[in-house]
User: Which sequence fits this backbone?
């Protein structure tokens, strides 16, 4: 069975595929890998918003109990806060929500700005460089590692393992990375337990060791791994996508240059226009579920597509146009919706905002170094992001 998601062209520009699917039906049974099994793919905005709050399960253990996957993912990756349902999910989320409050993010802003200025300040005028490698990649991973207390010397390894986890279709590479990353974090937890500091990881260890509502050892490890990976992967993509979108829309870029106070509001439209999470993490229907006018049959996997929903013309008129003054841009689903909405949304938005502010101030002549159709995109269904972004400084 042919699948639009196995076409290499999908990764270069997935929006024509999303438009075609949505035009056929906002909820459609589609093969993701070209096999005979299908999944419900949700591409309409209203349908996606409803799917995020529908009685769908994220409990992978229950789904695969009688459907062996043949995978060897480390349990810390296979079972995280993203793969459990309430009340377990509710308890785990409550224990980490305080780490990403607006107040805590505001406290990180001076550090994020100083880091961005340090990275951009090293660039020499008149040179060509890879913005992903020199800024979009190192900044978010450094921020989340700082928050968790991961040593600076280990951050390149973290980035490499994390990238491998999102290599769609390469199960051996994904599984190997899951064990490497979980093994590293288990060792770091022991080190922090012996020598606690003021990091978020030490806070989580304290919850495990002392609090009445304790984390189990497995829960502690899975939360640590999840926060580490989720805390930078999609933000790297968001920064790269946002810079590219602005470079391709010089009038909007000039608007931000002359009105830098508009950057914070512009972030919502940039996230809507080219969402870093293109297909949300896995769900399934434990029983027949009604979504809008469609019925998702019991046992069907469900893939909600924020990247498609955010280009739905029924919600966002002229959706393929970047409009930094769009009135309802804040309604985007780039961070999801409902109980699984991204915990790190305030931090991710702040990082994109600060990076754009620093870039506009320090590199006013920034431009693409290659034609846009030569850019290489990551081969990941979940993450929409660039492998590299060559620019002239």
Assistant:
């Amino acid at each position: 069975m042919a699948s639009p998601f196995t076409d290499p062209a999908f990764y270069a520009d997935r929006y024509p595929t999303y438009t075609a699917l949505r035009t056929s039906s906002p909820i459609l049974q589609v093969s993701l890998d070209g096999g005979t099994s299908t999944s419900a793919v949700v591409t309409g905005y209203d349908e996606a918003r409803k799917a995020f709050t529908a009685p769908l399960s994220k409990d992978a253990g229950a789904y695969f109990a009688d459907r062996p996957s043949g995978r060897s993912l480390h349990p810390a990756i296979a079972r995280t806060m993203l793969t459990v349902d309430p009340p377990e999910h509710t308890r785990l989320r409550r224990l980490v929500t305080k780490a990403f409050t607006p107040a805590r993010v505001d406290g990180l802003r001076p550090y994020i700005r100083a880091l961005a200025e340090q990275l951009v300040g090293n660039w020499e005028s008149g040179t060509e460089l890879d913005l992903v490698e020199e800024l979009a990649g190192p900044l978010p991973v450094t921020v989340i590692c700082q928050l968790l207390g991961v040593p600076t010397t280990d951050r390149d390894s973290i980035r490499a393992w994390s990238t491998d986890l999102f290599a769609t279709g390469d199960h051996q590479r994904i599984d190997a990375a899951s064990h490497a990353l979980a093994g590293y974090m288990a060792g770091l937890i022991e080190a922090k337990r012996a020598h606690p500091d003021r990091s978020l990881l030490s806070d989580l260890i304290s919850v495990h060791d002392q609090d009445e509502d304790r984390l189990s050892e497995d829960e502690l490890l899975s939360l640590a791994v999840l926060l580490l990976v989720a805390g930078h992967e999609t933000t790297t993509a968001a920064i790269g996508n946002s810079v590219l979108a602005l470079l391709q829309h010089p009038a909007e870029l000039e608007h931000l240059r002359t009105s830098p106070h508009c950057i914070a509001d512009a972030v919502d439209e940039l996230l809507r226009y080219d969402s870093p999470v293109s297909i949300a993490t896995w769900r399934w229907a434990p029983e027949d579920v009604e979504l809008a006018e469609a019925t998702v049959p019991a046992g069907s996997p469900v893939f909600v597509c924020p990247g498609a929903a955010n280009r739905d013309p029924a919600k966002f008129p002229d959706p393929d146009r970047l409009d930094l003054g769009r009135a309802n841009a804040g309604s985007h689903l780039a961070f999801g919706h409902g109980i699984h909405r991204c915990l790190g949304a305030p931090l991710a938005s702040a990082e994109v905002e600060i990076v754009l502010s620093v870039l506009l101030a320090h590199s006013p002549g920034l431009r693409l170094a290659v034609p846009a159709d030569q850019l290489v995109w990551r081969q990941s269904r979940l993450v929409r992001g660039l492998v590299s972004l060559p620019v002239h400084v």
Summary: The radius of gyration is 21 Å. Residues 171-194 form the longest helix (24 residues). The beta strands are 27-30, 39-42, 128-130, 283-284, 289-291, 294-296, 301-304, 367-368, 390-392.
